[in-house]
Amino acid sequence: MTYTRPLPDSAHGTRIVSVSAAPYDGYDVPRVLESLASIGATHIEPAFIVGYTEPFDESAFTPEKAHQYAAWLREYGLRCHAFSSHIDLGRPDALKVFLARMDFARALGAGVINTNAAHRSNEKRFFTNIDVLARHAESIGLKIGLENPGDGSDNLLNTASDGPALLTHIGHPMVGLNYDAGNTISHRHGVAPADDALLAMPQCLHVHIKDVRKDDNGYFFTPLGQGQIDCARILRAVAQTDLNLSIEIPMRLHRLANAQPSRAPYRVPLADIEAVLRPALAFVRERLGAPAALRT
User: What is the pLDDT of residue 113?
Assistant: First the structure.
């Protein structure tokens, strides 16, 4: 079966710019939503990533907790289009875990759930699992965005060049890429992040935008436009498409020199988070050509 990129949701309306909950690591959901509303965000991308965010288990994804989260969204006037819940889809329990997370995301109104593909050693089980997951995605109207990792491992999706064959093998229109150039810099040395992002874009159904600065101590996430990713170039390319995107600046996290994630022991002050996210929204909206009323 020949792979065809699914039609982005924004093809039928205004482009959606979400803000990841990752910088709010350590805060409860109502406080996060209140803050996002105050800086002019319209959509949140909840972030549930083991080792990258506050610890959690699968009890976080019950129907009752989805109902509560949806009520909070309504209370603060925000919506959920993208949902971040990265696991290795080739691990033995991936079906049980990810099916529940898909249902949770859809209950919040999400149109895409972003995850990693799988370590290359789990390739066989990944393709078995993704067939089941793609059929469930179709049944509930939720796309699956496979994201390139940043930890230097050997994944089925390391760079844009892996995308076409991977998606053709999967062969389902509800599965595409969620490319993140901010992961490329630590994952594959010698690959220019912005160049690779543009190569991946035709295979994408969603995009993450974050900036990174590398030094001898590792990889540090910076305000947009202050790192080495060339986010402006990526956004100008996104502006020529119908793709939705999320701003993802995990301020509590950095990557060590070996690309492994390291979380700070304390959460980032809300004032510092808002001071980074408010101009990030303006940076993105300006380069996407958003109406002035949406800029902050």
Answer: 98
Torsion of CA 269, 275, 281, 282, to 10 degrees: 180
Task: Give the DSSP per-residue string, 129-173.
Answer: HHHHHHHHHHHHT-EEEE---SS---BS-SSGGGHHHHHHHH--T
> For residue 130, what pLDDT is reported?
98
Q: Cα(225)–Cα(140) distance, rounded to whole angstroms? A: 37
Q: How crowded is residue 50: how many other Cβ atoms within 10 Å of its Cβ?
A: 11
CB burial string 187-197: b at 16+ within 10 A, e below:
bbeebebbbbb
Count of Cβ atoms closer than 10 Å to residue 272 Cβ? 12
Please give the pLDDT value at position 54: 87
Q: With 0-12 CB in 10 A as exposed, 13-18 as middle and 19+ as buried, what is 169?
A: middle
d(CA 55, CA 208): 22
The pLDDT score that the predictor gives to residue 14 is 85
For residue 252, give the 3-state DSSP assignment: coil
Segments of the chain scoring below 70 in pLDDT: 1-13, 290-296
- What would the two tokens of residue 25 be? 């690591």
Q: Which residue has the tokens 């999967």?
A: 170
Separation between Cα atoms, residue 82 and residue 253, nearest integer Å? 21
Check if the beta carbon of residue 196 is closer than 8 Å to that of residue 184.
Answer: yes
Q: What is the number of other CB atoms lying within 10 angstroms of the CB of residue 13?
A: 8
Domains of the chain: 9-291 (3.20.20.150)
**pLDDT at residue 283, as a whole number:** 97
The pLDDT score that the predictor gives to residue 290 is 61
Rounded to whole angstroms, what are the CA distances from 259 to 28, 52, 140, 153? 28, 13, 35, 9
